Structures
1.
Amino acid sequence: QVDVRPLVDGMAKTAFQARNLGRAAEIYARMLRDKDCTIILTLAGSIFGAGLKKIVYDMVKHDMVDAIVSTGAIMVDQDFFEGLGFSHYQGDPRADDSELEQLSIDRVYDHYMDDEELDVCDRTIAEIAESLPKRPYSSREFIREMGSYLAKHGKNPESVVQACYEKDVPIFVPAFSDCSAGFGLVHHQWYAKGEKLSIDSVKDFLELTKLKIAAKETGILMVGGGVPKNFAQDATVSAKFVGHNRPMHRYAIQLTVADERDGALSGSTLQEAHSWGKVDLRNEQMVFGEATVTFPLVAGYAYHSGDWKKRGEKRFGRVIDEMDPK
């Protein structure tokens, strides 16, 4: 609703992280202008529960992203959870956590979830697993089934999982069991008689490698760090390892509060990733700031620049399904 371009352009003329954010916003707009660029969005943290879900929903609906790599918590505990009709609530980080536990209220810093509603989310995942043919699935394949479920039974249409199902935008969750999906799938495998559904993490990596091979060029917009960050970056190395010498990610942006001093991957720089053959250094930018501040500005700048209007759908889910791994 708010055109942030004048603000971000002004920030770009200052210094420190304001200038970095201005450059990151322009690089994202550049990705959208590049007709050969496939845009991969990576997500970590409690950003949907914190209120940023609609940003990604709009990005999917307006062809501003072609694939998503996420933590399980964002796509299951936060997005699918809200798609079922449940909500996150503003809370207080100074609350009495013992009292919250007794009331079945789960706290994520300054926002809350109803634990009994989250249990419904877990059991719905188990129900979806029971309804499907029993075989190994990639997380992308299973999340597509979650989107199909929401399209039929959902109570909140502004769901990223449902929108990606409808637009055939693949969602990868490489650590899929580390969320409510894990509880639901454990329930399924505990009680299943005979054949069981499972999640194949190697198939996830194979499918993301297929996407990298099929794309002419790629750009990554990373919100936070964690497993999604490295998973998306590694696709270039994986493609080369199976005999397809694809270019490094042409564009790369990371919005993070982590830094490199403790050796953790979340704070490893994009310059470091270049040494691994993952990221081209001509169009890269780190922005050190918390995502509820930085992400709306970067995404809003690119949205109001209007370059997405000329992109169209890529429907990489279909491409992955039809692509011969050889």
2.
Amino acid sequence: MEYDEPRLSIREWAEDDRPREKLVSKGKSALSDAELLALLLRSGSRNESAVELGRRILNRVNGNLIGLSKLSLAELITFKGVGEAKAIAILAALELGRRRREAEVEERKAIVTSRDVFEFMQSNLSDIGHEEFWVLLLSRSNKIIKKIPISEGGLTGTVADPRRIFRAAVEHGCCSMILCHNHPSGNVQPSDADIKLTRKLKDAGTLLDITVLDHVICGEENFFSFADEGMM
């Protein structure tokens, strides 16, 4: 008869392999994603260490941290060994990471390239499963005056009201603006509707002396810029 070998708890691991001790001795960058997650989980279950549990959770999203950030509280607690307290700790850590990323980009303020737009808006658009349309209002020196959510829709589209967009632009005294929305599917190529809307808003901006500089479509890890593609 075969017997399963007893699993070693994390406390029984070599000290260099324990996540906490490893972080103290080698620094946070030395830890894998599963080990960092294990520190949030603090414990696993009878048959699984916290690191193994963290690895199992990450496997569900193919090791993608953006995918992990999309899991809801209800989805996280479906994992054996994850109760509400552990799930809340994970969600809180991911939200802190999102806010840090947003604050880091906001320090630069001025928009110089389409990648600046993508990085600035990524914290708002990368983790959601529906489309949202935003505008960045810019000063004459391309510094961000304000970012404004315009609308949100379903998986395949959202409606952007030109009146609301230009009302906000006039109220904040901006000189130019950048349009931005996401494609939850990950395919950042513009649809015919995206192209028509961009032309419509660009023409409206010309009449009001407010330049529409670009329209950036964001995916999880990539983006499409109308300006970069010569479509503005």
3.
Amino acid sequence: MERVHRHLEVTAPETLPALIEARAREQPEGRPLLEPGGGRTWRELAERVRRVARALRRIGVRPGDRVALLAPNCPEWLEVFCGVHRANGVVVPVSERLTAAERAALLGDAGVAVLAGAPGLLAETPFSGLKVEFEELFAGPAGGGDEVERWLPAPDDLAVIAYTSGTTGTPKGAMWSHRALFWSAQRNPFSPELAGGRRILVCAPLSAGGAIVMACNALAIGATALLCRFTPDGVLAALGESGVEFTGLVPTMIAVLVEAAPRGWRAPRLRRIYYGGGRLSPDLFAAARQAFHCEFEQAYAMTETCILGTRLSPADHDLRRPELLGSAGKPMPGVGVKVVGAGGRDAPPGEAGEVLIRSPGNMMGYWRRVPNGGEVFRAGWYCTRDIGRFDAQGYLYLVDRKDDMIKSGGLNVFPAEVEAVLGAHPQVEEVAVIGVPDKVWGESVTAVVRLRPGAALGAEELIAHCRSHLAHYKCPRAIRFAAQPLPRTGLGKVSRRAVREQYGREGRA
């Protein structure tokens, strides 16, 4: 009876720092992190996290202070991430892909007190606050230390300011609470039943929200995380030789790996690739399935929802039903997704409208920004500004971005619909469709196209191709040919905003 009573008094962890402490007590020799030559045990991870917390407190970090992380993927990144939380600080991930000026602007917007990371990246980043290398945070004394037990954050404290990719404007800082991050990490992208105790490769940049959630997911479900930078050879080696069973990629990464995989290459333990940030075409899916011999699962989600949204299951990745590959799947368990039409009413199946999401992962709001006129949240629902529709079976299909919609001659044109038609042409390598100001039409539908090497194709032929598949008002009135790859976001998606700035303003390719 006494043993049962003690068990009932145990409080389940509600934050990642609390979970790490619990695992260090319950399974101290388990290995949550892999690295070349070995890996960290839960006991070692908990102690290193405490070292970071003590070091940050010694240099003046106080509860609520923002600490930015700037480094390539490595075990230390995740340890410092958890150490900032152990000190009751707030993590601000910074992408190494940003220019020095972009980094400085982000650090200023977040009001960062400490910038921690890799020496070279720190040196080239303008910052007036304190800079500290990761290794310095682990070098302090291990003891000194009962006060560290009082620093565990509360579930509703601010944990992360995750900046959006800025595809439609200036990046904004989505604020995640510890509760939201932990809720997402416990079930997204992999469940304990599926991947607990297995090895998960995290190779997408940890500055991105999806990669952060995947790394935290490995900790939360008791898996082992292998962290590395994305290079084709490095990732293929990790998949083939490190016993990895699960990983997360974006379609661009999948395409690069398919192209780079040598003949006869195999990943013998790989069970599932989870991907987001775009869809797989039937051709790329067929090639990827042939290369990887594993299941595929797609996610539609965003930074503002802590990467919670919809999923397209492995069973729905079926070339006998290729139309499903164009779907974003169905809502994740515990997540509400609806499509809202004119006047705020729920749109019936088949009718397009704005996609709204409600879940425990929804952000607290944008850092230093007040939602304007209810456009960000509506009665607890996050307004994604994505246009989508449900079919009769409950699958969500994304049509386009509300911000990218073109108004031509009083009619709405969704660029993604036109891009899908042009992108299906065998001589087109990549395409972006934008609206260019026009005195007669308001906006003129314009396509910026890069052809495949050796292709010889004129604008008239491409417009005729569109007219055989689309209503005439949706077809481009002008085609501009690009000699260089189109600008992309950090997640590898073509950035219509950057294309619009370049080609819409200049009027030339």
4.
Amino acid sequence: MNIVAILPAHNEATRLEAVIQATEPYVDAIIVVDDGSTDQTSVVAKAAGVQVVRHRQNLGAGAATMTGIEAARRLGADIVLTLDADGQHDPQDIPAMLNPIHEDQADAVFANRFGRRNSIPFIRRIFNAIGNCLSFAATGLWVPDSQCGFKVFGPKALRQIDLRMNGYEFCTEVVREAKHHRWRIVNVPTKVIYSEYTIAKGQSFANGVKTAFRILLRSFIR
């Protein structure tokens, strides 16, 4: 199967090359979606020899992910995996994430950062717990780490997924897609690597509240 990795990236020039190099052994192609970066993100990606799709403006993680999925479809991908470009996900977990797809046990695989002994800041645990509850309220499907960007979509999910939310609320939209299309879901415990950099670039409380309202509002629209 043709496996394509999607790395949505906004101003990740200092981190991107290492993530690309660590991901390459496990996939057939990598697509970096430069989401309106003002640094050298696209330059670094092109120098690494991967495909680059660029948004002129910063549209958000959801828009970047869908752009990457559409580009992967054009490449003839059978399986797509998404992971953050800042280095917080460990590409060594990719084989475990792919395994349920290869064994035809799942249509989509979600990483679960809380399924292993990871050092996760307390405030992040709170935000993720709230996100999980909101996702469940909006979709009726419980996912133990619904807000994680590390996911794998098998052939069925890749054909059907259609994300319309531009921001971080797209993670809940993925859960809704899974419920709507009756995907088989497997949750895989994975490693997470937090640093001052990755913590600082996360959502603020105010943005988290805005995201929550958008999730609830859009859940009644579509």
